[in-house]
Design a protein that fits this description.
With 389 residues, the protein is α/β, with parallel strands linked by helices. The protein contains 14 helices and 18 strands.
């Protein structure tokens, strides 16, 4: 089978799905992205792409700086107490020297729009949720709301509530509620502030300047699953309104309609593998993790790039072997980060005064060099495996 004849269907037009489609397109595959939404939407909030994700994008020749502008420090650069005292401060210059570049903070819609714009015309279809993948008469058939497609490979990038994951791994326990809910929003340009994350007692607040001048805000709290306040601004001011400047002023500026609230989940257990026949799972569909390491989107990018790399040289007959190689390349790393993110969230969300005091003391006592080394497997852990011939 010629390279031009190979066809990949991607279920989902999020960060992972679009990156996978672009990476495969640039490696000679014909791609079709099926997105359940009726059209593109400028929803979501901010995202920080760490150096590992940016290096992964470099390998497919996609320079996000052209689309998103300057790089800015991330919330990983500093931790504070509610009274404003610093628990830790990172040396951005040292971080850049160690990992090759600083992180990039931007709006999710900026990233997805840039990825979509780099795809061939007609590759992205909206209103076409993938409902099933079946083998019929020796062909792989993708059932969608807009009709059936045949494919040589199927990329399941259909998110944390992945339909394809549930269909192909029916015995998997599914999602695990972390015990925390999160609020996210983006303020217009003009709210200049320094990136940081503040840890209280069972509550956190973060602020990140975005590349376009806006400011991404997020907050978390330990709450029952499904809790939704009647007045979002009042809730946030009650919880964080006495914290250090500029938190109260930023909260006064929020538009309640633009505040997103999501309970935080991860996978209760790892999938037994990240592929099944001609289907490969990436991103949240494969290894949903809490956002405590800032690696959810970054790992989706890594997944997409590694998968395309492994599929580059194979013909149709070689696809299952390439997807098995993808599982070997990605399952251990992504599961380790899923577990690490869960543990980090438990530490950050401590609420007992003695536990909080001990946590804060431990953070302050950790040498900067030790803290940087702890990031090596995050920011320096991306590698491309040997290709499948």
């Amino acid at each position: 089978m010629s390279e031009l004849a190979r066809h990949a269907v991607v279920a989902g037009a999020g960060i992972g799905g679009l990156t996978a489609a672009l990476a495969l397109h640039r490696r000679g595959w014909r791609v079709t992205i099926c997105e359940r939404a009726a059209g593109p939407a400028a929803v979501g909030a901010g995202i920080v792409l760490a150096p590992n994700a940016l290096r992964a994008l470099d390998t497919i020749g996609f320079d996000l700086i052209d689309a998103a502008g300057r790089a800015v420090p991330t919330a990983l650069g500093g931790l504070r107490r509610p009274d404003g005292g610093w628990l830790s401060r990172a040396d951005t210059t040292a971080m850049t020297a160690r990992y090759g570049r600083p992180p990039l903070a931007l709006h999710r819609s900026t990233l997805t729009a840039a990825l979509a714009a780099a795809l061939p015309e007609g590759a992205l279809t909206y209103g076409a949720a993938v409902t099933a993948v079946e083998e019929a008469r020796g062909r792989t058939v993708v059932r969608t709301a807009a009709g059936d497609l045949t494919a040589d490979a199927v990329i399941a990038a259909d998110g944390i509530h992945s339909v394809l994951r549930r269909r192909h791994f029916p015995d998997h326990p599914g999602l695990h509620y972390s015990g925390e809910t999160a609020w996210r929003t983006v303020l217009p340009a003009g709210a200049a502030t320094e990136a940081c994350e503040t840890w209280g007692r069972g509550e956190r607040f973060g602020m990140v300047p975005l590349a376009d001048g806006r400011v991404y805000l997020y907050a978390t709290a330990i709450l029952p699953e499904g809790y939704r306040p009647a007045d979002v601004r009042a809730e946030l001011l009650r919880r964080y309104g006495t914290w250090h400047a500029p938190v109260p002023a930023l909260l006064e500026r929020i538009d309640p309609v633009a505040v997103l609230q999501h309970d935080l989940y991860d996978l209760a257990a790892p999938l037994p593998r990240l592929h099944d026949g001609r289907i490969a799972w990436i991103g949240d569909a494969a290894h949903a993790m809490t956002p405590n390491l800032g690696q959810g989107g970054c790992q989706a990018v890594e997944d997409a790039v590694v998968l395309a790399h492994l599929l580059e040289r194979v013909d149709r007959a070689g696809v299952p072997a390439a997807l098995a190689a993808y599982t070997r390349a990605r399952l251990t790393r992504t599961n380790a980060l899923r577990v690490r993110a869960r543990r980090a969230g438990r530490v950050a969300a401590l609420s007992h005064p003695l536990a909080v005091a001990a946590r804060d003391l431990a953070v302050r006592a950790t040498p900067a060099r030790t803290a940087r080394r702890a990031l090596d497997d995050l920011f320096g852990g991306f590698t491309l495996p040997a290709q499948v011939e």
